[in-house]
């Protein structure tokens, strides 16, 4: 079985210890991942530190050009990398049906787009104040060395979200991928690094101990993390010791509110993929669906019809629309939440059964009859299960949507756009979509509030987050 290597200072680096990466479709090993030693973490940070002044000294045009070359590399190797996403993460390789349900090829297309867009953006000096006596100009300077910790659900795309804006702003990067999906990221960075100066982009791999060494490193100037709230809290505590700034995109439990004038047939497909994109393993998926009592049964019927029509299986096979849960721990959590829902009076409308397959397959599951306070409603399932909750008064649904200490995304569904937008202003989340859910865009800032984190990614605001303001104040 092949060993995959880290990239440190432009070179492939072996390690004394490896672990297996498993396919979620078969639970079989598909490659071996290095465990970075403390010395290798130090070397990766040192390489980034040494490379940063020259990288930052390049003109904007030169850094833009380098990142456009990286985008070309991603495009040229998209099929190879998409295959690794499917093998390691589980999402289907291609789309199915007229809407081409997003899979690994979509993820790689996103990697290219989220490289080209930040590479094209400018952060021009801004005159923040001027009168007859003074002129104050704010410039943007890179932090220096950025440590990035990426998750397993969109392993390459979220890595790109972290890497590219940081590089565009003149930082250098050391990234640690999830130990559950490391190979695809290692291969992507290996290819990207060939288009960049040595040391500008480096990797370290391993479990949380390696991540802890990286994020607590005294030569790291900024930390980017996407993952659970609990892990984010630990990283933040460590960062506070050295007063290292952070951007945190943490867990969510997104609520969707269907308004009484909605057409269930018209919104069913949007609701369905808003909840079950990537088998529900997306931070900004619908995790709680609030439906008026009069529309409840027909909404459930429409969603059930979609769920039961979609083929599930190994994402490497043609025609597969939904794949496995990525790992055994997450699979067990989903099973536990469904069992709790049944014990608390929930009704399984479809799905809800375990599989004898070697992989971590669990059917798309709709649960009704629950209320706020049930585990499946209050805890983020991060899997293919959706509680559908009746409401009588709209104010009650809004209160329910806001009651938890998370606030990544939410959505409101109605043909009356003015009314939907009015309701959206009352929902506390970083992004509230209307008649769509999880519809991110490379130019639109994205981030959470409350326990879902702080800071934003994407667009000019996301690029600014990779810089420090530097004001030059001139007396006339």
UniProtKB/TrEMBL annotation:
Domain (Aldehyde dehydrogenase): residue spans on this chain: 17-470
Keyword terms of this UniProt record: Oxidoreductase
PROSITE patterns reported for this sequence: ALDEHYDE_DEHYDR_CYS, ALDEHYDE_DEHYDR_GLU
One Pfam family linked to the record: Aldedh
InterPro entries: Ald_DH/histidinol_DH (IPR016161), Ald_DH_C (IPR016163), Ald_DH_CS_CYS (IPR016160), Ald_DH_CS_GLU (IPR029510), Ald_DH_N (IPR016162), Aldehyde_DH_dom (IPR015590), LUC3-like (IPR044086)
Active site, per annotation: 249
CDD domains for the chain: ALDH_AldA-AAD23400
Gene3D superfamilies linked to this entry: Aldehyde Dehydrogenase, Chain A, domain 1, Aldehyde Dehydrogenase, Chain A, domain 2
Source taxon at top rank: Bacteria
GO function term, MF aspect, one: oxidoreductase activity, acting on the aldehyde or oxo group of donors, NAD or NADP as acceptor
Family as reported in the entry's similarity comment: Belongs to the aldehyde dehydrogenase family.
PANTHER family with a match to the protein in the record: ALDEHYDE DEHYDROGENASE-RELATED
Stated name of the protein: Betaine-aldehyde dehydrogenase
Lineage: Bacteria, Pseudomonadati, Pseudomonadota, Betaproteobacteria, Burkholderiales
